Amino acid sequence: MKRPLLESLLTGAELKSVELRSALASGLEAPLSSRAMRLAETLARGFGPATVALLHYGSHATSSDARPESAHDFLAIVDDYGSAYRSLAATHGTHYSAFRASTLNRFLAPNVIAVADALATPPLLAKVAVFSLADFQRASSLDALDHFVLGRLFQPVGLAWVRDAASRSIVERCVLQARAASFWWARPYLPNRFDVDTYCRVVLSTSFGAEIRPEHMDRVAALLDAQRTTILPMYAALLAWLAREGGVLEQAKTEAGRVVYADRRPPGGWGRFRSSLYFRRSKLRATLRWVKYIALYENWLDYVLQKVARRSGVAIDLSPRERRWPLIFLWPKAIRFLRSRPQRQD
After folding, report:
1. Structural domain harbouring 138
2. More confident: 304 or 344
3. Which residues pair with 114 in a beta bridge?
4. Pairing with 285, which of 150, 244, 296, 318 sits 20 to 30 Å away (CA)?
């Protein structure tokens, strides 16, 4: 399928297909837990009038292996970085200046920061990826520079807070176009024949492999099971639309009644090479963002160690010297883990 077909789907203010629009919006209006709602209200107050919308995603949003004490993941979309960080500093207090945070956010968006609700019992923590509206619109489109937003929005997300109807319309369209674009970046990795179950598994595994992660690749199966009721109908509708528009061909039906498809024009060597470059660039940009996490994410070292231990089962013990000067002395252990991490062994 050529890129213009997806662009034709996304022309104008609305998706052309009402049926597809409804399917791709699945989960956006799903009710959130009381803990997620409380954090969303905390974040909206924290970022102040600059807050456009908050999207809740990740393990708490999909009920996939989330521990009660683990952070809730949010995408915060704001009008401008300076106003948002000045408000956050005034309402919550931050260990970094608003100038430093807003300057860093303009390079390799997003910033990822921790915001705590210490008044909650037990205390609640949000891990927040901060985007300006302009940066978010690009990151959720076919012109995305990397996979950060596309790799999250194709999965279930909830619209936790939105400023007004106009903001809702813009953010919803970003989510819909990100989900429609999944076929664009997943095509080179699809088998010759695939049904919606295979499509979802390939999209998850491709996106999962695009980041440096501590988990085994068998987590893809767990994620698919946790998300199945939301994403299978969503992408069944997308594949049906692509079949009607000539992007894919209907081949047969499975015993379960699912339609089997084939790409009408599978990508050749150049298409696969371009896809490889896209994911390599995305992984490089994700790696470079770690420098910003160190500068902005409070207690970043403990967060990384806990996540590695929880997801990979590998506990990394630090000496007093490594904990005091991690950027100098932690590299040997970090390199050994990256070379032997479970994700590389699957």
Report:
1. 25-178
2. 304
3. 127
4. 318
